[in-house]
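Limitations
The structure tokens in this dataset are predictions for the assembled complex, not deposited experimental models. Users should treat interface geometry with appropriate caution, especially where small molecules or nucleic acid strands are included. An illustrative entry is reproduced here so readers can see what is and is not provided.
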Amino acid sequence: MAELSSSLLYAAFIIYFIATAVFAVALTVKKSDEATTMNKWGRWGYILSIIGFISQLGYFITRWIASGHAPVSNLFEFTTFFGMMMVLGFIVIYAIYRLNVLGVFAMPVALLVIAYASMFPREIEPLIPALQSNWLKIHVTTAALGEGILAISFVAGLIYLIATINQSKGSKKTGWLEFVLYTLLSTLGFILVSLYFGLTDYQATFNWINENETEAELVYELPAIAGPHEGELLTEDKFGPLFEAPSWMEGIDAPKKLNTFIWSLLSGGMLYGLLRLLLRKRLGAALQPLLKNINTELVDEISYRSVAIGFPVFTLGALVFAMIWAQEAWTRFWGWDPKEVWALITFLFYAAYLHLRLTRDWHGERSAWLCVLGFVIIMFNLIAVNLVIAGLHSYA
Amino acid sequence: MDKIKCECGHLNPYGTILCESCGKPIQEEADHQLLNMRYEGTARRSQTYNTNFVDKTWNFFSSVKVGVWLIVITLIASAIGTIFPQQMYIPQNVNPAAHYENEYGVLGEIYYLLGFHNLYSSWWFVLLLGLIGVSITVASIDRGIPLYRSLKNQRVTKHENFLKRQRMFGTTKRPEDEEQFIEEAIFRLKEKRYKVRREGNNILAEKGRFSRWGPYVNHVGLIIFLLGAMLRIVPGMYIDEDMWVREGETKAVKGTDREYYLKHEQFVLETYDPKEERYSDALNRVGGTVVKNYQSDVVLYKADKKLPGAKPELTEVKEYPIQVNRPLQFDGFSVYQVDYRQEMSEMSFQLQNKETEDAIGEFTVDLQNPKNEYDLGDGNKVILRNYYPDFYFDKERNQPATRTNVPNNPAFIFNMITPETPDGEIAFIGIRQNLDPSGENQYKIAFNGVDTEFITGLTVNRDYTLPIIFVGGIIFMIGVVQGLYWNHRRIWLKLNEEEVWVAAHTNKNWHGIKREVDDVTSKLQLNPAIDQQEKKKER
Ligand code: HEM
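Predicted assembly:
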């Protein structure tokens, strides 16, 4: 069952990939009118997305059966599920607006998220007592669905920015846009680097004093750029470290995480540099012509609409259900745990967005930047809070 | 201030921009501009008066700009609170000032000095939440009431100037058969599930008006939620107590004023079997045991009317296994499994002849309630002279001492009395220590075994604010869904001497109403209504 489950996930991944390509073709269809809304290619892209989604749903169900509990209980499972909910969000929004360009950007972002997820340990884990609750499933799945729909607003916002920002000369705006694209590339870089060193079975072991002040071994799966503080390399003939992680970094295996982070930034930088060399212009400028036919007003509305649909779902899942569960598991519905606080921050951020948009006419570009920022907050809560700020929720 | 009489006859409050009834612009702007339809051009207090202090305060809180700033400041403050752990999440037995400095250096020190280690209960954070509450209330009253008036008073026949200056507007030559046209128009609009009203040659089709109340409903929910949360400071509304109960012990449940008692029968601790196949990979990677379940089997008792000083009479209420996620609930209280500890409960010893190591007798010391004397028969007995549950050697005073009353490191001074040594011999016994202070003892005490027991950590909680908070949350959710999943759409049709006019307005999601209007106009063979805002942009 567990094997079937991973095959289904793998299949979903490939199907999403093909769907992206099909959507991209749909965008290049000559007749300008047809290119933006549903055409033959677009319909196929959509159908493929749904098939991929069903396959991933199969992964989810089979893994549930195999593990005996809803597979949303560690970082791999949750992040995969988040990617799946992004696809669902896309399926819903596409059904309303039928805009192919949305698929060209939404599916790759979902792919990145799922690939990123599979870099975490993938074994089926037993549930600790605190997680043995029906409210866990309800809370986590609803929150992820809300975040998935909100992510579509990021995708639409990004499309809007690429399509409309003046690329004739460099500016602060083009700079920030490049930065957003670079961040996406860093995720890709991280995945590629991890895959490469994973396939070659790279391992370097250090001896160090860990966060509990005890001597321990730390195994790096990537060459150590940043080694543990006062660590000693035990494996022979291995690279590095170039420098040591500062001693104040807290949390489980902090130096290793720092090292991974540096690898992501570097590999992202290399990918970015390579693309710049090939294209000989800013990535935003290179992408813009592909989007010349799209109806930016519509894209703007989609970005807002995804927030309008996602916000209540997110609130229900990440705050209301979370509070009910916390009341049951931790004796209080609210405890200012970092993860809780970041859910609140996300909530407040989108509330501010809605007010600015609905009562102060923040449309178009400003609204799009906010959607991008909102996604940054969501990803921060998903990744950084789990990996860096240790709290009750930290899975890893 | 005087009311304003519109040419249609309707009396509008002072400050009105568009007549509540016919929509005629009262405060004339440039004729060709689109109307600002926000809040239907009603007279809002904040837009009308701005002279005295009350007005100014009102206008301040009514402003969405101020509201958004408050939200953003709260958001940033909340984020700052997660940079380092709050005080409640650091170890409780350390000095916080030193802890923040040692763990996080200068930044930690500053963090502590600024009071950020208790950020969420600081006066200014609570004040921020309060200001948001005030702002929500004022802003909602300022807009909600006039909006309600206006939507209730709106009539079907609108002023021409109102229609022409809607964002979506189109004109077509008048059809031949007026009556048939209007009938068909009504049919088409109803097909799209509009509520249609007719006044002569005018039609108003409307749907989703209730969604306009969404923001007000959700804000009411938020206010109830905030008020509920604040009620916690009222004494008696909120009880939250920790208690530790050892196995076999019966204790009054804290916070119940000795009305309820709990007996901790037995503690159960289960771990996952590393051989369980599906989890074996993960368990091997973690390399330790993973707890599957911990639970306290308890019996809940109710005490009868208590006489001061008398032992209460206990009647059993129920037996219950308290697990994480499954609190015991009774009479508004919930008792949660939150923690556990394992402690030594009993130690047994043997009195021996020092040379031959022959056993003379055995005895067991209950570490919670040690006896003074253990009679071993035949004139042998052991007297417990001193007991140090948590032993350490106090160097200053040069004598043994105990840190706490918890038997973490028990040590004893015994006096051994036998027929041969009627005056007694002193022995000092501790973990891995067996001292003979005089050096001339004939007898000794040997360690024979130890028993441990579980102590369960429970939290008793009663929170009367929960229902209020819950109701607030539900109302909030209803309001948000109502406002964000529906929208308020109106289409006006007017037949005048020469033309048919179509105008449309929605409070959001223009894409949707455009599709509907396009569909209706094409079926009625009218010219499409034009988005005048887009047209303006193109120019
Ligand atoms: C965290 C606190 C808040 C939340 C979660 C919240 C939520 C919302 C939401 C979701 C909407 C859009 C509803 C819709 O269009 O259906 C809205 C609208 C609105 N909110 Fe808030 N709000 C908050 C605080 C405030 C504050 C502090 C103000 C004070 C200025 C305010 C004033 C308004 C106004 C004027 C509207 C528009 C009403 C309308 O379009 O008729 N809100 N609020």
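Some entries come with short summary sentences. For this one: DSSP finds twelve helices and 24 strands in chain B.
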